[in-house]
């Protein structure tokens, strides 16, 4: 497996036109009463913290799909809210979650 060189990074001049898909997701209400709400009330979990930590493993099909999305974000020159290019897996997940938040808020 070869590492990408910094010269391989997509820029507006060399960015490829990515294949696009539309994904519909069910959106539920905010936090519901129960275990998580009890932890929030007890001060053990805060929704006001700057972020949420994910530690997850996905299966081979999901991983292959995720890599295609991550690479599409790289190739299209996508950036995070602070302007940094999307490069890592965490960047790609962060970008997707921010895009979902924007869609929910609109």
List the helices and strands and how they pair.
Blueprint (H helix, E strand, L loop, with lengths): L34 H7 L18 H17 L12 H17 L1
Helix pairs in contact: 2-3
Compact overview of the structure:
39% of the residues lie in helices and 0% in strands. The protein is mostly helical and 106 residues long.
**What is the typical, i.e. mean, pLDDT?**
79
Number of strands: 0
For the biggest sheet, the summary is: none
Shape: elongated
Which residue ranges are poorly predicted, with pLDDT under 50 across at least 5 consecutive positions? Answer: 1-7
Rounded Rg: 17 Å
Would you list the SSEs in sequence order as H and E?
A: HHH
Briefly note the structural class of the backbone: mainly alpha
Distance between the termini: 41 Å
Beta-strand portion reads under 5%
Figure out the total of helices: 3
Helix share bin: 25-40%
């Amino acid at each position: 497996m070869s590492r990408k060189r910094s010269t391989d990074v997509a820029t507006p001049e060399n960015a490829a036109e990515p294949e696009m898909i539309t994904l519909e997701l069910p959106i539920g209400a905010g936090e519901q009463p129960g275990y998580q709400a009890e932890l929030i009330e007890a001060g053990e979990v805060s929704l006001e913290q700057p972020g949420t930590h994910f530690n997850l493993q996905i299966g081979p099909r999901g991983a292959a799909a995720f890599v295609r999305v991550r690479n599409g974000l790289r190739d299209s020159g996508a950036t995070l809210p602070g302007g940094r290019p999307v490069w890592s897996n965490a960047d790609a997940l962060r970008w997707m979650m921010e895009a979902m938040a924007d869609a929910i808020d609109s």
